[in-house]
Amino acid sequence: MDHDADDTARLTLDLLEARLRQAEYTIYGHLDGNANSRKRKSVAERLHELEKGLDVITAKSKVAQDLLKLRARHPDLFYSPDSEVPPSLLDLPSKSAIVLSSAASFPLTASSLTSIRDTPIPEAERSAKIIATRPQVSELEALQAAQTKTIASLKERTAAVLQRWYSVDILQSGEHWAEIEGRIDTMEQGVRRAEIARQEEEATG
């Protein structure tokens, strides 16, 4: 029995020393080379060195100091969420208040769960028929995708035709009308000048 206890103690110390070396490597970037010599010491000596090593890390590492401060302020952050009995910092009245604040949603949740439980499961024959239509559904999906692609192509062509119609017919027609109006204005100006000249000749004659 004592031999088993010693083995358990040594195994526990090995695990603790491994964690300590991992912490040292994370903080300092290197490991102490005396790991093998530690295992040849007694359990009490190894435990004392573990405590000493932790004290050294705590004293020299600001990261470790900050972690200890954070643990003191928020201890719940250092517990695993997978624990069977998660720690709680709330007293019983606070827990009761949380439960009572959500009490109004309990009937709705219970009704939803009951509805799910009472939903009948389709018969096997009907399910088999639905599964058998899967290839047809896949074909329809492929056809729909092809139609969507065709519609997109037609939209692009329509937009191109409208753009060409606007550029060629509308804009060019507008340019032609502007040119014709310019010629008409020029002719009207010439007619007015000729009329004025004729009137001046008649007045002087």
From TrEMBL:
GO cellular component terms, semicolon-separated: dynactin complex
UniProt record, GO biological process: cytoskeleton-dependent cytokinesis
Name the record gives this protein: Uncharacterized protein
